[in-house]
């Protein structure tokens, strides 16, 4: 059995009808791959459609304001991807006359483009036999070959990349790469894979040894840090609130949020009241403070768990440079803030 022939045959009969599979235009392939990083297809598809509708070419994306890009990205998380997307669009449009590099090594030089994305674009758009390796590929190969090398180690990454490169269909790398990703996503799934109907069942080492659920192996990540966020949702008498843009490195860079009081531990009403009184916007101004969410919202990021409370601050005066209630939804905000805004309904 030749691995890629069996795989490609499965793909021809089972592939999903997805819009980026109807084109080999680098802009659309690049856009889909950036959106789908750390994002499932069902979640990423609406974003892909929204971006292609709003920015039908790399030139349109390059001309957009960053805030517009971040607003459209809202809810996908990992906002550095959106910023890198915008930076690369401007570079391709302005420095490369709208033409993406046509090979793996040159694609790697684009901001936000790593081994996986460069391989996908190079193979799908330019027929270069560069194998993709993502979570789906790790899973398929580790199970089929019975490999227990941890996939989140340098050794594991090199081992699986070399193996995928050895297996790729040199004549049709685009189909192979899309097929192995699709197979891992829809058939050789993380949980409850469809082993009974698998075309590789007679050759799969993990299946023969009863190790399917144990592969691939991934070393445990460091424990996430716990942080305590208290957002002040200021409501002025002239129907305005306050949104502040996060600056510098770190989570949510350039996104907007309500004034934040970060504490070292869970804050009481009295703690927040004292901190609020000292806040530059509220200092020496009469206001009423109340807790919006009785239960703490725990927002889990890859490296942080944010224990969050929203505090309503009714201000008995106006705000000089506030945001009107009607325009709150125009700002690019983290999904944590966005969910509050939707529920609070300014």
Automatic annotation (TrEMBL):
This is Adenine DNA glycosylase. Belongs to the Nth/MutY family. Gene3D superfamilies: Helix-hairpin-Helix base-excision DNA repair enzymes (C-terminal), Hypothetical protein, domain 2, Nucleoside Triphosphate Pyrophosphohydrolase. It comes from Aestuariibaculum suncheonense. GO terms for molecular function: 4 iron, 4 sulfur cluster binding; 8-oxo-7,8-dihydroguanine DNA N-glycosylase activity; adenine/guanine mispair binding; metal ion binding; oxidized purine DNA binding; purine-specific mismatch base pair DNA N-glycosylase activity. Its cofactor is [4Fe-4S] cluster. It catalyses: Hydrolyzes free adenine bases from 7,8-dihydro-8-oxoguanine:adenine mismatched double-stranded DNA, leaving an apurinic site. The lineage of its organism: Bacteria, Pseudomonadati, Bacteroidota, Flavobacteriia, Flavobacteriales. Binds 1 [4Fe-4S] cluster.
């Amino acid at each position: 059995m030749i691995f890629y022939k069996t795989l490609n045959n499965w793909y021809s009969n089972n592939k999903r009808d997805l819009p980026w599979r109807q084109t080999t235009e680098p802009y659309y392939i690049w856009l889909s791959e950036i959106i789908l990083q750390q994002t499932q297809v069902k979640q990423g598809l609406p974003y892909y459609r929204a971006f292609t509708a709003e920015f039908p070419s790399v030139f349109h994306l390059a001309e957009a304001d960053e805030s517009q890009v971040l607003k459209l990205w809202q809810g996908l998380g990992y906002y550095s991807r959106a910023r890198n997307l915008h930076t690369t669009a401007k570079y391709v449009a302005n420095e490369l006359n709208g033409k993406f590099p046509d090979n793996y090594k040159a694609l790697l030089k684009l901001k936000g483009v790593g081994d996986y994305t460069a391989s996908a674009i190079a193979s799908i758009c330019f027929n270069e036999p560069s194998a993709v390796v993502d979570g789906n590929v790790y899973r398929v190969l580790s199970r089929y070959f019975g490999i227990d090398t941890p996939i989140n180690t340098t050794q594991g990454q090199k081992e699986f990349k070399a193996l995928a490169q050895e297996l790729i269909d040199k004549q049709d790398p685009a189909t192979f790469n899309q097929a192995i990703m699709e197979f891992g996503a829809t058939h050789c799934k993380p949980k409850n894979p469809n082993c009974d109907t698998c075309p590789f069942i007679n050759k799969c080492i993990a299946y023969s040894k009863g190790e399917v659920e144990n592969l691939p192996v991934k070393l445990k990540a460091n424990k996430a840090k716990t942080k305590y966020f208290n957002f002040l949702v200021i409501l002025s008498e002239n129907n305005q609130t306050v949104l502040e843009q996060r600056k510098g490195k770190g989570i949510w860079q350039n996104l907007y949020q309500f004034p934040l009081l970060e504490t070292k531990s869970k804050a009481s009403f009295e703690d927040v009241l004292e901190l609020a009184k000292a806040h530059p916007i509220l200092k020496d101004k009469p206001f009423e403070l109340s807790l919006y969410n009785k239960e703490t919202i725990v927002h889990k990021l890859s490296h942080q768990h944010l224990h969050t409370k929203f505090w309503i601050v009714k201000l008995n005066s106006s705000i000089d440079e506030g945001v009107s209630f009607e325009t709150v939804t125009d700002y690019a905000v983290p999904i944590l803030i966005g969910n509050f805004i939707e529920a609070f309904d300014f």
